[in-house]
Design brief:
Strand order of the largest sheet of chain B: 1-2
Distance between the termini of chain B: 74 Å
Number of strands of chain A: 0
Low-confidence stretches of chain A: 1-29, 257-261
Number of domains of chain B: 1
Oligomer: heterodimer
Largest sheet of chain B: 2 strands, antiparallel
Distance between the termini of chain A: 28 Å
Helix content of chain A: over 70%
Low-confidence stretches of chain B: 40-98
Number of domains of chain A: 1
Number of helices of chain A: 11
Helix content of chain B: 55-70%
Shape of chain B: rod-shaped
Strand content of chain A: under 5%
Number of strands of chain B: 2
Mean pLDDT of chain A: 82
Largest sheet of chain A: none
Structural class of chain A: mainly alpha
Order of helices and strands of chain B: HHEEHH
Chain lengths: 269, 98
């Protein structure tokens, strides 16, 4: 999920960390540099550990396949497979060793990328920008998928409500029909299936809400960091200034500006 | 907003399902009583208890029994109050005549 290429190791190769962590017993250079935001240090270190670990090709392929699914296919899978949701939170739940929510790790990586550019620590600014772009795309994709999933779930649930409330608006007839055992059985069996749909949808919704609230927290931290460093460092470099402004725009956009970020700011309040 | 709307819709759908299930349960119990008073079944029970006490299976499978004196007046009253209009009352009538 987090780009393996995001080499914190840029530090290890260039050996120019601002404040590297303690070396290990063999004198090898530490792999986790200090993140500019203390609140993101833990998430940042965990994201590095994940990227350095041997990737699980099956898991990676599965995640990639899931995010490539359209909203209808995702919903179908959600309703059919017990432990499936496309949310970060569900993936986090399936990784018991992970302490930090994936969105925290993603924002930690993005803010660290800005830090590298601002401190001129990157071997290649283009490479850093490219990797940041990947992370930004992932956040955008998350917002898009979450919006689509909630929209589709709402359409599905409302449609079922419209169908099912009809008999209850004519209870006299419905009660007579229920005297037929076969009809009654079909109603009860249908209800069981719909109860499962309600349960699965509620689970996915709760996962999405947790993702969103976490996304808000992490985005707030990123925006705060961008405000703190300001744009003075990039004044003489139009490209860097453009990147900084774009990141500010992303942070604001994710939080509240466009329709997708309205999801972020309204879904959890 | 989307989350709140979906949450409310899920609650509404859950309430509808509960109401439908409740009504199905009521209908089921209603029909169990009716079904248990099927004349052929009562006849079967009567064959097993051809004494002065008429036992009527209330659950349709002879698990629960309703007892009442087997005189004509009781049998007629019970049959009229508990058995649906579509149920054949001939057994009670025949029994009362016997």
């Amino acid at each position: 999920m987090l780009d393996d290429e995001w080499q914190v190791g840029r530090y290890s190769e260039d050996s120019t960390p601002a404040d590297p962590r303690a070396s290990d017993d063999h004198g090898e250079q530490a792999t986790a540099p200090v993140h500019p935001l203390a609140t993101m240090q833990g998430a940042f270190e965990e994201s590095i550990e994940e990227s350095m670990r041997d990737p699980d090709p099956h898991r990676a392929a599965s995640l990639s396949k899931d995010t490539a699914l359209g909203p209808e296919a995702r919903r179908k899978k959600l309703l059919q497979v017990d432990d499936y949701t496309s949310s970060y939170n569900s993936r986090w739940r399936q990784a018991p060793g992970a302490k930090y929510h994936p969105l925290w790790k993603l924002m930690a990586q993005i803010s660290f990328g800005v830090h590298l550019l601002q401190q001129q620590l990157a071997k290649s600014d283009q490479e850093v920008v490219k990797i940041m772009h990947t992370h930004v795309d992932e956040v955008d994709g998350f917002l898009e998928r979450t919006t689509e999933d909630l929209d589709l779930a709402l359409i599905d649930v409302k449609e079922r409500i419209n169908y099912l409330r009809l008999p209850l608006e004519h209870v006299n007839i419905f009660d007579i029909m229920l005297d037929d055992k076969q009809f009654r059985t079909s109603i009860l069996e249908g209800n069981e299936k719909i109860e499962r749909i309600v349960e699965r949808t509620a689970q996915a919704m709760n996962d999405s809400l947790l993702d969103v609230s976490t996304g808000i927290e992490a985005t707030t931290e990123l925006a705060r960091y961008l405000d703190t460093i300001g744009d003075a460092w990039a004044k003489d470099n139009a490209e860097l200034l453009g990147i900084y402004n774009a990141m500010r725009g992303n942070a604001e956009g994710w939080y509240r500006s466009d329709s997708r970020s309205r999801l972020l700011s309204t879904i959890s309040h | 907003m989307k989350g709140n709307t979906l949450g409310l819709a899920l609650v509404q759908l859950g309430s509808i399902l509960n109401e439908m299930t409740k009504r199905a349960g009521v209908a089921s119990r209603r029909n169990v009583v009716r079904g248990s008073l099927d004349p052929s079944f009562i006849a079967l029970c009567f064959v097993e208890y051809p004494t002065d006490i008429l036992r009527v299976a209330a659950a349709g499978i002879c698990e629960t029994w309703i007892q009442f004196p087997s005189n004509t007046a009781w049998a007629q009253q019970y049959s009229h109050s508990a058995i649906s209009a579509s149920t054949n009352l001939s057994f009670f009538s025949n029994y009362s005549e016997r």
